[in-house]
């Protein structure tokens, strides 16, 4: 990470010669008071890999429009598709949610509308405020083929409904709602059946809501985790002094785990798994599985090992991959990545501090991989750099041997596709190295996701809005809201050198692009 000219240098006396130490002192005096602030939290940038992915277009989705018309023009994308997954019924159909309201099923690359979520909940449904608002996610019960049950996540305006959230921040302006649907005929190509509300959470800010809901695909029917629904809840975007992520009496800034078929929750519409880590603790919600998140954007399980990895979008400088276990506390907003987050810093450049010597007593868990924002010289430490991690998947498919065991993820804004080795991501062992993958289109041309995804958002021409997905065989897909397309990774290529055929990415400095 380059050090902006406005920043003050950090003094490290150990290992310096006397002359170098004097020089450092003179520099520090000329630049301002010395500080312990950390300006380069991840010094090693993602290295260009010799491995490249071949991307073939798989599906294209029709244009959709946010409701109401957005003020933020970054919401004007071709189709705000969020993920792709295969239905667990052996049909080969894939599901794709569009934030603007439609649930699509795709067969042989051809999409059709299965369910209009926006129309079902109109006029309360809204997708025109906040980058993650609307029909955010869908997941299917592992026995969908026989029971027809699946679950959706959508947002509603608080002012447009009389419904009361089960849990809410002060000044709530919108609700994140989880709904259970039961299809009368699971094999049908359009939905007919019933639905019921499971959980409703109120948020006081327009961003960092409920980001993903999902079942653990590695759990077997006789496992305690089978059929339990994981819910990634953001902090509501209320600012760095928001204490909710550390408040065990609130679901905000947490990863929850619930039993959607149980009834012993406070609202009686879902169950509290007895093995959850905070069950029975005074003042704590039994739903909580892990604590201390700002924006837990996407999570997945390694199908070979059962380890859960989560892409955690940072505030000031650190984009993290966390390995999540029951009871973990990832520290926000006391920590960002593996640094103290100084909420009281008067200089906006001085947000990150080294961990204290007695840090173990706090019990925080730190990332297994991370990259930082790498701002250009002269950055004022306040403008949004447009960097945000998009969590991905450990590749365990069969078609691409060169990818096996690699956790493939990326940056959702500029579209960089990255990987790290799953076996190098080890808790307590520092950060695993991150590598940038080269990309090729089906004709063999070197490309960037910015090239494939076409025009960006108005005022933000380089924005990709990258997402990842997989099918039942574990094969990998990339999605872009920018042009509403999905690509399948159909091959790999080995480059002669790590710098050949690798187009550079457009600079991001000064662009108000990040989903903060």
UniProtKB/TrEMBL annotation:
<keyword id="KW-0732">Signal</keyword>
<dbReference type="InterPro" id="IPR006311">
    <property type="entry name" value="TAT_signal"/>
</dbReference>
<protein>
    <submittedName>
        <fullName>Glucose/sorbosone dehydrogenase</fullName>
    </submittedName>
</protein>
<feature type="compositionally biased region" description="Low complexity">
    <location>
        <begin position="497"/>
        <end position="509"/>
    </location>
</feature>
<dbReference type="InterPro" id="IPR011041">
    <property type="entry name" value="Quinoprot_gluc/sorb_DH_b-prop"/>
</dbReference>
<feature type="region of interest" description="Disordered">
    <location>
        <begin position="497"/>
        <end position="516"/>
    </location>
</feature>
<feature type="signal peptide">
    <location>
        <begin position="1"/>
        <end position="31"/>
    </location>
</feature>
<feature type="domain" description="Glucose/Sorbosone dehydrogenase">
    <location>
        <begin position="134"/>
        <end position="424"/>
    </location>
</feature>
<dbReference type="InterPro" id="IPR012938">
    <property type="entry name" value="Glc/Sorbosone_DH"/>
</dbReference>
<dbReference type="InterPro" id="IPR011042">
    <property type="entry name" value="6-blade_b-propeller_TolB-like"/>
</dbReference>
<dbReference type="Pfam" id="PF07995">
    <property type="entry name" value="GSDH"/>
</dbReference>
